[in-house]
Amino acid sequence: MATLDVNPQTYQEQLADKVDRLNEMFASYNVPELEVFESPEQHYRMRAEFRVWHEGEDLYYIMFNQETREKYRVDQFPAASRLINDLMPLLIDAMKDNDSLRRKLFQVDFLSTLSGEILVSLLYHRQLDDTWTENAKALKQRLNDEGFNLNIIGRARKMKIVLDRDYVIEKLDVNGKPYIYQQVENSFTQPNGKVAEKMLEWAVDCTQESTGDLLELYCGNGNFSLALAQNFDRVLATELAKPSVVSAQYNIAANKIDNVQILRLSAEEFTEAIEGKREFRRLKDAGVDLQSYNCNTIFVDPPRAGMDIDTCKMVQGYERIMYISCNPDTLKENLDVLCETHNVTRFALFDQFPYTHHMEAGVLLERKA
């Protein structure tokens, strides 16, 4: 993890700069007034990872200066959640005098939640044995006795030891209603919990007057699918990563939602399937008839590379397109295609990554008359 200057006194200034940049980037698309969703000024990241430095008997976290690549000691990290900051010193102190836990430890990853659960992954340059497992169990018990709801994973080359479970259960509040999400170690989740709640509320608001069914591409663990299900008859969602699909199925059951169907297909594969170019056994096995769906609205949340041209062309076939983007540059490229047939009617900035140049944007597009 590289250095990050978290200074609440500069937060509004950096946010205003992002607003100006995003408005300037998209001015040619005749966008409506930008809706701006702020982040907490500190303790906003639910995830953090640190390298570990061994100096004689001492043991501490380090980060690297992005420009000079020089290392520096980190005892607290204001960008990370309070839960991570509370645990950081206690964890390192508990391992410092334990040879089995500290030997060849080179990295610690934290995954925390707004709901109070936290998962710690300890990464080693050596194979882990039964002694490590016993000591890690004692460490977990000791920290949980101090008030944490903690699980631990040990990782080494071609090794993964899970003490109880490799995920946390997050609860996000969407317009006063709690949604339960299983978040698995090393799987994608929105890093800024409070902004994630605002994104879900915005998406629900955008689709308030919807009719028919929703098609969602790149659905991950069902993050948006579950909250959006209330506005549609049915939701058909696709995701390629198998762990995310498994989590999505868990989340559907945990939230007692009965109108969401998850398919393990990439966006490109779904395009081939819906256009009849290719048949997929996965669809038959799931008993899914794509032609039975009445999808007027499509929701996409693609990776940084954006959508390929064939997917963009397929997406143009829907009355309404809701697009969440973690990369305004590729959003812009995709809008060059989508705005041939659609107008942007909602435009949002979600400050997922304060004090960095990264911007998360949302647009709602509606077919031109």
UniProtKB/TrEMBL annotation:
Active-site residues from the entry: C326, E360
- One GO-annotated biological process of the protein: tRNA methylation
Annotated family: Belongs to the class I-like SAM-binding methyltransferase superfamily. RNA M5U methyltransferase family. TrmA subfamily.
PANTHER family annotated for this entry? TRNA/TMRNA (URACIL-C(5))-METHYLTRANSFERASE (PTHR47790), TRNA_TMRNA (URACIL-C(5))-METHYLTRANSFERASE (PTHR47790:SF2)
Protein known as: tRNA/tmRNA (uracil-C(5))-methyltransferase
Summarize where S-adenosyl-L-methionine binds, as residue positions: Q190, Y218, N223, E239, D301
| Record keyword tRNA processing present | yes
Task: List the EC numbers from the record.
Answer: 2.1.1.35
Task: Please indicate which superkingdom the organism of origin belongs to.
Answer: Bacteria
Q: Which reaction does it catalyse?
A: uridine(54) in tRNA + S-adenosyl-L-methionine = 5-methyluridine(54) in tRNA + S-adenosyl-L-homocysteine + H(+); uridine(341) in tmRNA + S-adenosyl-L-methionine = 5-methyluridine(341) in tmRNA + S-adenosyl-L-homocysteine + H(+)
Q: Which UniProt keywords apply?
A: Methyltransferase, S-adenosyl-L-methionine, Transferase, tRNA processing
Class of this enzyme: transferase
What PROSITE patterns does the database record attribute to this sequence?
Answer: SAM_MT_RNA_M5U, TRMA_1, TRMA_2
Q: Which terms does the record give in the GO molecular function aspect?
A: rRNA binding; tRNA (uracil(54)-C5)-methyltransferase activity, S-adenosyl methionine-dependent; tRNA binding
Q: Can you supply one Gene Ontology CC term for this chain's record?
A: cytosol
Function per UniProt: Dual-specificity methyltransferase that catalyzes the formation of 5-methyluridine at position 54 (m5U54) in all tRNAs, and that of position 341 (m5U341) in tmRNA (transfer-mRNA).
